Amino acid sequence: MRLLLLVTAAALLMFTTRGAAAQTAAQAPKAETSPAGDAQNGKRVFASHKCSICHGAKGQGGLGPKIGPPGSSFSAFVLYVRQPTGKMAPVTSQDLPNSELADIYAFLRSMGPAPQTPVSAAAGNVQNGKRIYASYGCFQCHGYEGQGSKQTGATRIGPPAISLSAFSSYTRQPTGQMPPYTSKVVSDSDIADIYAFLQSIPAAPPAKSIPLLNQ
After folding, report:
1. Which of 149, 85, 77 is nearest to 107 (CA)?
2. How far is residue 15's CA from residue 26's CA, in Å, rounded to a whole number?
3. Are 148 and 70 contained in the same domain?
4. Quick one: how far is CA 22 from the chain centroid?
5. Are residues 130 and 104 in the same domain?
6. Which of 88, 120, 159, 167 is the most buried (most CB within 10 A)?
7. Domain boundary among 109, 142, 164
8. C-alpha–C-alpha distance, residues 110 and 68, integer Å
9. Distance (Å, rounded) from C-alpha 79 to C-alpha 162?
């Protein structure tokens, strides 16, 4: 009788342990798997929607943050596109469905870490760039030395932290409230001169020492 009770107790314990283990495994959260997107189509969509203007041709960052390769899950990537922060406009599912976002995500994942290369100096005329910068009223939004302004919401552009080509692309097709400047209005050589002028400006000291720069 005693032996029968011990066997029964052992069987019950084994059944309970297996049941608990099975329940725990069922309740354990599954790791999110990335969708099987088409990287080649993602590259095309990324370019056609002009994402490269702010984020760079390989998502390496520029005017916008670095997004390639993505450091977040696909669901977080979708949330960023649909409900972005900063000056990026939200992109609806009608403009860009999740299937194409999956392709862009696959394209960005195929990008390796971008090499950190310094921004090369532009072969422009600093003095002419300073004159053009003032004559076109760039200082009204970006400040006399490209330091940006909290009042206008314009970003800091001096000295530039991006390449001349990215600076030119942003001037031609800007984001936010800045109007586009076509080649009929500002030539490529003038943009190079403005870029050279902004590059000649030393890095600004801390804002606390010159509070007017933030106004």
Report:
1. 77
2. 16
3. no
4. 42
5. no
6. 167
7. 109
8. 8
9. 27
Q: In Å, what is the CA distance from 5 to each residue of 12, 14, 15?
A: 11, 14, 15
Exposed / middle / buried, residue 80 (Cβ in 10 Å: 0-12, 13-18, 19+): middle
Residue pair 38/106 in contact by the 8 Å Cβ criterion: yes
Q: Which two tokens stand for residue 27?
A: 């309740």
Cα 59 from chain centroid? 7
- pTM, two decimals, is 0.45
**Which residue, among 69, 79, 212, 57, has the nearest Cα to 150 in the 3D structure?**
212
67: Cβ contacts below 8 Å, ≥ 6 apart: 55, 59, 61, 77, 108
**Predicted confidence (pLDDT) per residue in 89-138, tens digit:** 889 999 999 999 999 999 999 986 544 444 455 578 999 999 999 998 99
